[in-house]
Structures are given as structure tokens and as C-alpha cells.
Amino acid sequence: MDTKISRMARDFTLTDSESIKVSIPADVCHPGEGYNPRILVGRITTDHRINFSAFRDTVISSFRPRWEMEISHLGNSRYLFAFNHSVDLDRVVEGGPWNFDNDMIILKKLN
């Protein structure tokens, strides 16, 4: 079902001035080990302080990954989601839009 909010979330883009550079923590990347996680970067549309443990537990419960996933806090309401399998990443991308505590979570695949 393609709802109005789904279309708005799908078509949402950032301008060049709104884009940010993201440093991926080394313990998520595992360079040199042949490990290539599927990664999303997300931002919660709020200025309020977020309880990371509650956010992580709620997101994992909502995303229901079949394989392990890791969530890292990048600061300023930004998070990194590393999936071990593309099936989980694809399900999350296609299953949106997502929210936490009535605030939208904007997700983007990391290239």
C-alpha cells in the first residue's frame, strides 16, 4: 500500500548544504577481514535528547532483523545501522517510513 506519507518519505531528499559526512567506526567496518556490512545512516527529526538504549531496543524490535545488526550513535540525532545481510536492509528500506517517539527516522543507504 503506497500511502501519502510513504510517498513523501520515499521522495524526501537533502540539499548539498544539508548533507553531512559520516565517519564509520572501525569496529563496525572490520577493514581487511572481507566483511562488507550493508549500512544505513539515519537521523531522527527531533531536537530532543534521545535515550540510546531505548532507541536501539525499539528499533531492533521494529526492524525485526533475521541476522545480527549493529546500531551506533553518531551524535546530533544521527545513527548508523549496519546489517549483516541485505535481506534485512532491504526489508527496512521498503518497510518505511519509520518513527521513534512520534518523530520520523530518515534513512539513507550509505554508498
UniProtKB/TrEMBL annotation:
Organism listed in the record: Buddleja alternifolia
InterPro entries tied to this protein: DUF4283
Domain DUF4283: 38-110
The name this protein goes by in its record: DUF4283 domain-containing protein
